[in-house]
Amino acid sequence: MHPLRHPRNAIFLGLIFVGIGFVYWAVPYFLGLHVDYAGVTMLCVLGIAMALMAYVLIAGSPND
Amino acid sequence: MTSNANALIPEEHGAVAGLSHDARGGISNPILGMLLFICSEVMFFSGLFAAYFTVRAAAPVWPPIVPGDRALTEAYNLHAEPWFAAGLTLILIVSSFTCQFAVWSIRRGDRTGFVRNIAVTLVLGIVFLIGQVYDYATLGFGIADGTFGTTFYTLTGFHGAHVFGGAIMLSVLLYRGLAGQFTSRHHDAVEATSLYWHFVDVVWIALFSTLYVL
Amino acid sequence: MATTTLPRAATGYRSGLYEWVTTTDHKRIGILYIVNSFIFFFLGGLLALGIRTELARPGLQLVGDAALYNQLFTMHGSVMIFLFIIPILAGFGNYVVPLQIGAPDMAFPRINALSFWMLPLGGILLFLGFVTGGAAQAGWTSYTPLSEDMPLASPGAGQDLWLMGLVLIGTSSILGAVNFLVTIFKMRAPGMTLFRMPILVWTVMVTSILVLMATPVFTSALIMLFIDRNLGGHFFNPENGGNAILWQNVFWFYSHPAVYVMVLPAMGIISEVLPVFSRKPLFGYKAFVFATAAIGALGFSVWAHHMFTTGAVYLPFFSFMTFLIAVPTGVKMFNWIFTMWRGKLSFSTPLLFALGFLTMFLIGGINGAFSAAVPVDFALHDTYWVVAHLHYVLFGGSVFGVFAGVYYWFPKMTGRMLNESLGKVHFVMMFIGFNLTFFPMHQLGLAGMPRRIADYANPAWNDLNLAATVGGFLIAASMIPFLWNVFISRRNGPIADWDPWQANTLEWATSSPPPPYNFDRLPEIRSERPLFDLRHGRTATHAVAIDAGSAPPAPAAGN
Q1: pLDDT by residue (tens digit) across C294-333?
Q2: What is the pLDDT of residue B93?
Q3: Which of A 11-50 lie inside 8 A of B, CB atoms?
Q4: Residue A52 falls within a domain, yes or no?
Q5: What is the ipTM of this complex?
Q6: CATH number reported for the structural domain that contains residue B118 in this entry
Q7: Cβ of C213 and B40 within 8 Å?
Q8: Are C30 and C91 in contact (CB under 8 A)?
Q9: Where in the sequence is the domain holding C502, given as residue range(s)?
Q10: Is residue B50 within 8 Å of residue A41, measured between CB atoms?
Q11: Cis peptide bond upstream of C145, omega within 30
């Protein structure tokens, strides 16, 4: 099946952003630098919202 | 467009299985629109949470200690008295259940059950709002009381505003349900409103966990 | 047996004012968006002329004190971004997208109308500041603490009106995004798979995702600032535990994806224009789609490159991500160039503006890449280098793309052709004027001239500023042939038939202008160029009339 047709794959898009958010938290945290919690929050929530959006758009598309 | 024998048909599997469907397959337009709108609302709250985590991480101690104002410092300690807010949480969770019961009722064509469950959901929502106002009145700090007050009232206040909007939507559903406007095949507004109501509940759970527990 | 004759169903438009005010037809709403946006373009342009007049020579000539100057550049930026470029691209999307996917209208026609009417209202709120003691004057970026309600900052109502106006305009955008996404995913004609959609539809889709996700964050920032200003809040107030940089963080989390909102649909427009006027299909359709998606996704991870100099930013992460975004943009550049390569070019006005886009956006992209290098940005931040960069991508890029779209779709929208000679005069004047205005700003920035200053004391900057002012007035003058062209062509232009450009996409498969319900019948759709296929016998002539199985047209009486 074409990857763009499978709704579960759509969540992958959201996971990318959660991953970027995680990196954005982890690198400064473990390097002892200042952590930008605002950015971390917004990136992680963006991942959740993107996953939901991508899932409903793919799962909600017509069959033809 | 190639068809595929292994295609997952959304109507029969997956989380969208129950939602109202389009004649051509897929989620009906108004419900898809509501789901996307919910995504945008999630991002709205992300900005507010971002502000909260920033000021909290930068504060030397949280809840803040206000030198020379013991009453305020004690009022800030939400962890000590989370019971009322926990009660509100329970009310909202129950209301999500009754809302879903209403959806299941109308999917079955059970109009009486639908009206009853929507009415209960609406009442619980109004109780939540009244409870929230009462909580505000007895908290002991205001929106201008430091970053703690500002972030607390902004977050819970906007959540309350969303509950209020949801209550209006539920009232419309109640009215239309009593007027017999919904059937098992045509009840998009019910599905859309219930999705919104569940979203409001999820946001509250996140809020409660962040403000009262973490 | 008595028979009754029913009144005939409306098949045309009624054109009174009432019909325009109450319309829910996406074509009329699209035109309303475009006209409204042009009005704000001219207002924003007047504000820019005010800026340039003041800066033409050292000393304060036009404005009595710098506070008025601050209002000029604040309102210029705010109006151009929120009331011109974003809405006009939404307007083109509104008009063209349902036609290009073979749909009878947008998914939510009444919400569509609501989205439009929030715009003039939001614009009025913004401009009301001028008559209530001063418009917003903290820059379109409204940094705290300058935008807080404190004596030397922004104590007046103007800033609050700015906040409220933008909340309204943002809501309009978000509703529009929901509308576009549901329309694109649910209402495509049979046979039009996602990878057979025109590129403009893809760019509008990605833009709508950006709007949906990023604009609410801006709304939350605006509200937080409103609470600080009016309810005693402390979000951005360091004295009480708040954080002034927090504003910048949340603001740019929206405003960076916003710049892609401002440019992606324009890229979509020229991706429609270039293949038609090169008589060649777009090179690398799929690469283009993935590049657009990549730009959209990466656009969310670079926001703090606007904040390098605050000291609160993890510099390597954002610098790296910013350089990375140049890659998919470069892919698109090559796609456009290879579309034209060995094509049969016809240099009509739409193509001229598309070429203007390619060249000017390239310059804007390159000078942006300079700024992505942190040490370079440390020197150039808040100088005229940045002003040059943003105008090369937004004016040289998006505005040229908008004009390409105007000249391309005017025949479809009005049923008349625009005059080619006037179009070419417009292009040449605008191209020269634009470069005369903004190219010197590279030099000024490198020489250290800061932005947002009403006056300057360095005589080395005099000549370049004067040149920029002359250029600014030349841009203004170039509007004259354009407006004259629109005026005379609407009345006396040659009648346009269905497909005056021999184009590829479905909007040209119906009359100019289209009937209210868009299509009587659709060609078979087997590729991203259904009209080309039809013209060259690859698909059956005028297949199924569109009443079987597709979504019913939105209920509309006469609109």
Answers
A1: 999 999 999 999 999 998 888 988 999 999 999 999 999 9
A2: 97
A3: 35-42, 45-46, 48-50
A4: yes
A5: 0.94
A6: 1.20.120.80
A7: yes
A8: yes
A9: 26-535
A10: yes
A11: yes
